[in-house]
Amino acid sequence: MTTTVTSPASAATTDAMVRVESLARTYGTGDTAVHALRDVSFTIAPGELVALVGRSGSGKTTLLNCVGGLDRPDGGRVVVAGREVSSLDEDGLVDLRRDVVSYVFQTFGLVPVLSAAENVGVPLRLRKLPASVREERVALLLDLVGLGDHAEQRPGEMSGGQQQRVAIARALASSPRLLIADEPTGQLDTATGQAVMALLRAVVEAEGMTAIVSTHDPLMMSLSDRVIRLADGRVLAE
């Protein structure tokens, strides 16, 4: 069941995993300025899967980038897991992306020369985990996304849906508290996209994390706990 956000207090503000307050982001100046975000506010509670919807150019990607620390707002603030993202320095942002937030993009972003298992293991190598721990976690995640038998295949030997499953497994490798997915089914056919969306719902529950997913797909909206609708950089109240 889905509902549309009607106020920033739609999730508990005291225990929010994500809190966005009066967020603004403008690109350019003068007559050519693009107001990507205008006074955006909402909260997301721990364990929620929230669908972010809106037409192209509505501000979805800019909002996700500000929440995840890939972009900085011009005004307002973002707090993720108690950390004020909008005020972190570069080291703080690196820590955030390593320990708290993971991303899934529609372009997959896998390393072509690495196998599925090696791609999933990259975040664990960066954390310098022992090989035995790393291998166990990678095997568990590939099984979770239904690719246990494809561990040695490289991206070029896999379908688009399989590559996106590897990308999801990689995003989960470091046990993030927040998963951000920007149009994760944008390059997939309808049937494969639906399977990936159902997988996202399942892994959010299995891993006990919070997720915010931008999408145009009604199925993803139906699988989410809430829907946040954007238009012209603003949150719609319906």
Automatic annotation (TrEMBL):
<keyword id="KW-0547">Nucleotide-binding</keyword>
<dbReference type="GO" id="GO:0098796">
    <property type="term" value="C:membrane protein complex"/>
</dbReference>
<keyword id="KW-0067">ATP-binding</keyword>
<protein>
    <submittedName>
        <fullName>Putative ABC transport system ATP-binding protein</fullName>
    </submittedName>
</protein>
<dbReference type="InterPro" id="IPR027417">
    <property type="entry name" value="P-loop_NTPase"/>
</dbReference>
<dbReference type="GO" id="GO:0022857">
    <property type="term" value="F:transmembrane transporter activity"/>
</dbReference>
<dbReference type="InterPro" id="IPR003439">
    <property type="entry name" value="ABC_transporter-like_ATP-bd"/>
</dbReference>
<dbReference type="InterPro" id="IPR015854">
    <property type="entry name" value="ABC_transpr_LolD-like"/>
</dbReference>
<dbReference type="GO" id="GO:0016887">
    <property type="term" value="F:ATP hydrolysis activity"/>
</dbReference>
<dbReference type="InterPro" id="IPR017871">
    <property type="entry name" value="ABC_transporter-like_CS"/>
</dbReference>
<dbReference type="InterPro" id="IPR003593">
    <property type="entry name" value="AAA+_ATPase"/>
</dbReference>
<dbReference type="InterPro" id="IPR017911">
    <property type="entry name" value="MacB-like_ATP-bd"/>
</dbReference>
<dbReference type="GO" id="GO:0005886">
    <property type="term" value="C:plasma membrane"/>
</dbReference>
<keyword id="KW-0813">Transport</keyword>
<dbReference type="GO" id="GO:0005524">
    <property type="term" value="F:ATP binding"/>
</dbReference>
<feature type="domain" description="ABC transporter">
    <location>
        <begin position="18"/>
        <end position="238"/>
    </location>
</feature>
<dbReference type="Pfam" id="PF00005">
    <property type="entry name" value="ABC_tran"/>
</dbReference>
